[in-house]
Amino acid sequence: MGEPLKIAVLVSGSGTNLQAILDAAAEGLPVQVVLVVASRPDAYGIERARAAGVPVLVMNRDKYADPEAADAEIAAAARQAGARYIVMAGYMRKVTPVLLRAFPDAVVNLHPALLPSFKGAHAIRDAFDAGVKVTGVTVHFANEDYDKGPIIAQRAVPVLEGDTLDGLEARIHQEEYRIYPEVLRLLAEGRVSVGADGKVAIDG
Fold it and tell me: What is the value of pTM for the model shown?
């Protein structure tokens, strides 16, 4: 077995996807979370990181007054920690070119819809209100176009007859907890690349 893939995870809230990654790593996923960045000092993801012994960089509103300076600080901390990928897990800040340039084709985002449909911060509600029969989860590389980066993987989640928004949201989150570790395994195995056409290829 080689060295695990080192990642920095960016969170803004409860950190449930961070926990899913930490749990999967404890069960053999070849990934090591070497840094957690919290965009808010009250994010519960901080407690999850500390419980797992992972260093935490805590940001705040004042630091984000200059988004590029904030991303420069995040990039520097991630590099110092040895991270090869930046993994956004419920991170509610738009990353700037500073971070994207520091980690080219290595900033990964999780979106709770089947992109390119239902971009933005309210994707689950937007899909539910639109009355679609199928929505889902997308993992993609972030780029300068919000929610438009190259798609790595998607998983469909049906909208059930008589569904509620809370019920749909819970099932989408359960799918997130499965798909993110799967994608991280592909990255750890070196099986993911972005072609000249801007599309993701997965070896094997």
Answer: 0.95
